[in-house]
Amino acid sequence: MSFPQPYAGYPDAKYHKLTLAADGVLLLSFNRPPVNAWIDPKWQELTRILRTARDDGDVCAIVVAGEGRCFTAGLDLNEQSLAKIVADQPDAARKALVMRSHIRDFQEAISWFEYVEKPVIAAAHGVAYGLAIDIMSACDIRYATKTTKFSIKEVDAGLAADIGTLQRFPKIVGNDSLARELCFSAREFDSAEAREIGFLSKVVDGGREEVVDAAVKTASIIASKAPVAVRGTKIFLLHSRDHTVEEGLRYTTALNSALLQSDDMPVAMLAVMQKKTPKFAKL
Fold first, then answer.
1. Among the listed residues 211, 206, 209, 65, the one whose alpha carbon sits nearest the alpha carbon of residue 139
2. CATH code where residue 262 lies
3. For the residues of 177-219, what is the DSSP string, one character each?
4. Which of 136, 183, 239, 267 is the most buried (most CB within 10 A)?
5. Which UniProt keywords apply (predicted)?
6. Would you write out the chain's pLDDT as a tens digit for each of its 283 residues?
7. Does any domain span residue 98?
8. Phi, psi of 279 (to 5 degrees)
């Protein structure tokens, strides 16, 4: 089978370009020119795509990128629907409850980068503003080009970030003072600083093609591993982020009591002894 090829699992995407970039690797590209700005139908479609990918045994890892000029410039402020959503509500309490439900659904959509339970690599180029940080923070691995520019932009739009950056980004960078500075000021920071603070693990020379290629190579390595082991590892890492060491160990013990009974482990061990490439059943 040759790659890349169209992804048959979700052929009707309107706001995303979906391709199998390598064996087991789904390339999910934001595709809403000119700057991949977000509107409600876009994140609603994203949820459906990631649900499909979660249950598709042909997808072992996901690379997230942007088509065209940039990764994403964030929300499309000209098309936001909150005013329309609450317009028909008669009082402040009802407006608040409708808005609360809308925000929660949006948060869930971005959290699907975690819920998909398969490793997700963000490959950013151009600008990565606002919602881009929410998205990248929900991904497992983050790459960018040397010239990518980042900003936690929400305060410049008159709101506090509410889709995940304020919850995830400080835990990723491990520098509370700097995280607060970037969130309060909305100042732009470059790839060198993003890597220095631990937000990025790799900075790539070149443009979109080069950073996507680098991400696909890493995703291909991950996709070649035992799928039960990889999925379990992501589940355990996410659980440990928000729990104590002891809670994490107990959770791992409970779930691994089942996962260790998979055929993947003897297949992997035999391949090592025979110095062959293992072939795992789909998950």
1. 65
2. 1.10.12.10
3. HHHHHHHHH---EEHHHHHHTTS-SEEESSSHHHHHHHHHHHH
4. 136
5. Fatty acid metabolism, Isomerase, Lipid metabolism
6. 789 999 999 999 999 999 999 999 999 999 999 999 999 999 999 999 999 999 999 999 999 999 999 999 999 988 766 677 777 888 889 888 988 999 999 999 999 999 999 999 999 999 999 999 999 999 999 999 999 999 999 999 999 999 999 999 999 998 999 999 999 999 999 999 999 999 999 999 999 999 999 999 999 999 999 999 999 999 999 999 999 999 999 999 999 999 999 999 899 888 888 988 889 999 8
7. yes
8. -120, 115
Domain shared by 134 and 233, yes or no: no
Asked if residue 176 and residue 163 are part of one domain, the reply reads: yes
**Range(s) of the domain holding residue 40:** 5-223
Same domain? 137 vs 208:
yes
Rounded to a whole number of angstroms, the distance between the first and last alpha carbons of the chain is 20
